[in-house]
Design brief:
- By secondary structure, the chain is mainly α.
- Helix 1 packs across helix 4, helix 1 packs antiparallel against helix 5 and helix 6 runs antiparallel to helix 7.
- It has 7 helices and no strands.
């Protein structure tokens, strides 16, 4: 087993902070784990050295559906985590989110051109553009979550190896 160095400690602490953020607010994490707000704050703080108990890690990873801390612990021991259908789900979700984002941006572009075709943007047109832009941000936020999931899992291969080693 490798030596538990500062590098591993900081990776674990970073994953711990990411896990708290993936589950929402500090208040939500306190509800899930039954730990105090100050304790959760110490887990999240870049200056404190508190580590989460394993049961809290398990609760939070189950809640957000991503093994952020467990992945670092597995990496430390020379193992990796995989789910049988995770690769296909991540690719499908990533492709779907990108397509949704492109569709929303296209809608925003088309409506902006249409609204400005008379040389004037009315308040009603601007309100409509704001609504579409809000939808763009929402889809972009979902895409950020999918990309973070792919990043947290160490990437995802688009090509799947076939039997016999051929790709």
């Amino acid at each position: 087993m490798p030596e538990f160095t500062d590098r591993w400690f900081y990776r674990l602490r970073g994953a711990q902070r990411d896990l708290i953020e993936a589950c929402g607010t500090i208040e939500r994490v306190t509800e899930l784990t039954s730990m105090s707000k100050s304790q959760v704050g110490r887990w999240r703080s870049p200056t404190d050295s508190d580590l989460m108990p394993v049961n809290c890690v398990m609760i939070l990873e189950e809640d957000c559906g991503r093994p952020l801390v467990s992945k670092i612990m597995a990496d430390f021991s020379g193992y990796s985590l995989t789910a049988p259908d995770q690769r296909e789900a991540q690719i499908a979700c990533l492709s779907t989110q990108v397509a949704d984002l492109v569709g929303q941006v296209s809608s925003l572009m088309a409506r902006t051109a249409q609204a400005g075709s008379d040389g004037f943007y009315s308040v009603g047109e601007v309100n409509e553009l704001l609504k579409i832009n809000s939808e763009v941000r929402s889809v972009a936020d979902k895409l950020d979550d999918v990309l973070a999931s792919v990043k947290a899992s160490g990437g995802v291969s688009v090509l799947q190896a076939r039997k016999g080693g051929a790709a």
